[in-house]
Amino acid sequence: MKKLGQHFLADAATKEKILQAIQPGAAEVVVEIGPGHGELTRAIRRAHPTIRIIAIEKDTRLAGELQKVFDGDEKTEIIEGDALAALPEVVDDLAQKGLAYQLIGNLPYYITGQLLRLVGELEHRPRQCVFMLQKEVAERVAAAPPKMNKLAAATQFWSGAKVIFTVGRSKFNPPPKVDSAVIVLTTAQRKARSANTSGRSATPPAAAEGYYRILRAAFQQPRKTLANNLKTLDKNAPKKLEKLGFSPKIRPQDLSVADIAAIADGFPIDGGDSE
Question: In the chain, pLDDT over 90 holds for what percent of residues?
């Protein structure tokens, strides 16, 4: 897996642990983001010679090298491009063919949040995501109360998140300045809408819209109490929270995903500032 700054995973034991986490089904496609030199791509191909692999590489030189390596391999497709732009089209094609898939890759810090939001918006979601992230970022994504944060709450709305192992910086060539961790996101599926051809939800479900509305307000100033933050939506937020069984003194980091969903139900979008 490639890491921001062109750091490449050079440890065979770590690759094997990642392969164990991936374990694609016979009819499942593996979509890899940022394959780099193709170390993991080749390992997947050796372990699973019949599955289809789609690898999206932004670096023109590396994409060209990979196309030469996999020339003649009809089950491996190399796409040169930005994953944020290419992924919806790739996923839409898989959806129309009725193919299940999983996402894998090492996500540079600067696209992590954007990519996780993109995956959460997809109509045809992956069965799971196996991502290598900076260790600190992986721990944030998998956080639970009392260390909940906006990124974790947004991601865990559509997936279960678990850090399965850490990877020291010495496992890369050249070594980065930070350690990494592999996280598995087990996704919740949505029913496909036949009229949608974008790979994304045509219209966000009301439950999701309400959830993210509360999430944005709750974490706008994490050091403030939840009641104070939610006053931007409803001046009677403290009373409403107490009715829902939440102390007005509770802070955003103490909330679970289920808590945020329950609060969203109690603060309907068209509810106004009722007494």
Answer: 79
